[in-house]
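We were asked to recover a plausible sequence for a given structure. The inputs and outputs are reproduced exactly as logged, with field labels preserved.

PROBLEM: sequence recovery
POSITIONS: 108
GIVEN STRUCTURE:
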């Protein structure tokens, strides 16, 4: 059972890293084309992808989870660039799903 969870963590981790790399390349190409740094924030990308469901995200989180989660935590993540959110998340998931090496203990 634990090996299945580790596989899922690794799969999600690689997916998050792929999203981070794609977003980084997109930000870099946009910045080069505009001759200025232009990083797409996560909130704008989510609104572009889900224009109907994104506005109900705030009331849903405040009502069903906790109001504290929305204001300092989710709002902070929504103004960060996409790659800055998904890269650490992907690395963390890969760390959780890493195959651990067993160390041999030799007695003298």
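RECOVERED SEQUENCE:
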């Amino acid at each position: 059972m634990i090996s299945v969870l580790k596989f899922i963590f690794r799969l999600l981790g690689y997916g998050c890293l792929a999203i981070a790399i794609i977003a980084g390349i997109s930000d870099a190409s946009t910045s080069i084309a505009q001759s200025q740094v232009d990083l797409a924030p996560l909130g704008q990308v989510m609104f572009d992808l889900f224009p109907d469901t994104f506005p109900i995200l705030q009331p849903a989180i405040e009502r069903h989870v906790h109001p504290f989660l929305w204001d300092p935590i989710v709002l902070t993540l929504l103004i960060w660039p996409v790659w800055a959110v998904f890269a650490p998340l992907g690395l963390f998931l890969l760390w959780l799903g890493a195959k651990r090496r067993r160390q041999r203990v030799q007695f003298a």
